[in-house]
Amino acid sequence: MMVIVPNIxxxxxxxxxxxxxxxxPEASVDIETREYLYSELLAFYNxxxxxxxxxxxxxxxxxxxx
Length: 66
Description:
Layout: H1 7-21, H2 25-28, H3 31-48
């Protein structure tokens, strides 16, 4: 499916992603991850009419198996 996204919306989504991904440079260079995040934000915008506030955090992996 082809979607036409206004430049101002595209730039706003990319700016929001850049702001949050600056703490995770390894994710910034992974094009598949970035495209996925962009499409999720665009889908949210299409459904709700605004770009949500969001934040990325690292998962803390525990080696404890209880």
